[in-house]
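User: quick one, sequence for these tokens?
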């Protein structure tokens, strides 16, 4: 379930990534598209890491705590992307409702 707190956290996460990506004195190179691309790459990376940890656990080479941590990280990054997606959709809908 998406709550205002989760949306605020998602926004803060995207803002911190934007601040990390953009040089202090220069213009941002890719803007929102670049931030979205890197965030999706992070989600894919976290998901792959979680899958790798699950395989290692099945093989007996990893601790259950490591698997739970990897799954939690993947879930958090996916929820962030979903919250941003929902906010973009809501913003689009608001724009479409505006009178011309």
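Assistant:
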């Amino acid at each position: 379930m998406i709550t205002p707190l989760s949306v605020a956290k998602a926004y803060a996460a995207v803002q911190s990534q934007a601040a990390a990506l953009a040089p202090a004195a220069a213009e941002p190179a890719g803007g929102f598209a670049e931030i979205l691309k890197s965030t999706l790459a992070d989600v894919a990376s976290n998901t792959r890491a979680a899958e790798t940890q699950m395989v290692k656990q099945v093989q007996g080479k990893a601790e259950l705590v490591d698997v739970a941590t990897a799954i939690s990280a993947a879930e958090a990054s996916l929820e962030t992307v979903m919250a941003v997606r929902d906010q973009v959709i809501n913003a689009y809908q608001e724009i479409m409702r505006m009178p011309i």
